[in-house]
Amino acid sequence: MNRIKEPKKILIMKFRNIGDVLLTTPLIKNLKLNYPDALIDIAVNKGTQEMVTLNPNINEVLIYDREYIKSLSSFQRIIVEIKFAWKIRKNKYDIVINTTKGDRGAQIALLSGAGIKIGYKSGKNFLTQNVFDYLLPNQGLRHTLEMDLDTLKVLNLPITEKKSEIFWSDEDKQKVDLLLNQENLNRLSFIHIHAVSRWMFKCINDQTMATIIDYCQEQLEVKVVLTAAPVKQELERLESILSLSKSEPLNFAGKLTLKQTAYLNSAAKFFIGVDTAIMHISAANNIPVLAFFGPSGADHWGPWDNDLMESEYTTRRGYRTMGKHRVIQENWDCVPCGKDGCEGSKISDCLMKLDINFIKENIKQMNND
Q1: Among 82, 155, 264, 314, which has the highest number of CB atoms less than 10 A from its own CB?
Q2: CA-to-CA distance for 311 and 146, rounded, in angstroms?
Q3: Which of 192, 180, 266 is nearest to 225 (CA)?
Q4: CA pair distance 44, 39, nearest whole angstrom
Q5: What is the average pLDDT score of the chain?
Q6: Are strands 60-64 and 9-14 parallel, antiparallel or unpaired?
Q7: How many angstroms separate the CA atoms of 128 and 102, rounded?
Q8: What is the pTM of this model?
Q9: Is residue 352's pLDDT more than 60?
Q10: Are residues 130 and 181 both part of a single domain?
């Protein structure tokens, strides 16, 4: 298609998880570079909004309270859904972009009244099968960040950069600086480890993680700072790891918001962790990442190097790098399986048997860089 007349208002919808929302920021930035006078809004699930709040390229963040809506009766749910869609319609968007497959975004696009609607073909609901004026291609083996940028190609717009970004407040910075000062920690003087995920099937063996912590502190003599979400399951898993550790890392688990964790991460020498939103935050901060992958595919979800324009995750499994980032994953035929553990166990065997000596060697190299 030819480049369209410059829109006044654009809505992006990303009804997914925290990391997914962060990976939409290159799309937002490129839209703003191409349409500098346009107001760009984004609609996201509640709990993910910190990935895009304070972003200077965004006019408004619309929050969809998915868990609350699911708790309502069928009649109440319909009323709340209509109110949410009506608010979007009243905003009179010129372009609405649904960046994920699914009927919710398609239904909102249908009701939006936008002149141009972009999204994925919906096959579940006959009302939304033909809602979009322009269809986005399937992901294939491409990275999720690049998949979001397909919208630029549909609009015949140039892609200037492929950089995810996150922003925090001065108050967030001041709180974390105070905590670090109390521990006599300067920028680039510590390793940030986010050891667990709310999806336990993404976690590595507790003893392996404890050994990693001890190796950093005792052999490399670099302080480890731990974070975890203020979630009972995560905090208990981290306590299990610490019970196996011989050293005493600095533990901020459950004490920081996502914004504060992002700022903390920006001060780290490098990051070690499992496949979580914090891994994507580290990549957005241009902090080197050592990530452990199991059921997930790094070709879709690996840490993206902001200095590069093309993905270097060209194979489906095994050890890979992208610029400054490293992904450790078994080279098994069943990897990545996309399942929640082996045979639904919530435990992924491919993450239980990682080679600790290979991990140590990578950490040593990153520490010396």
Answers
A1: 264
A2: 8
A3: 192
A4: 17
A5: 94
A6: unpaired
A7: 10
A8: 0.95
A9: yes
A10: no
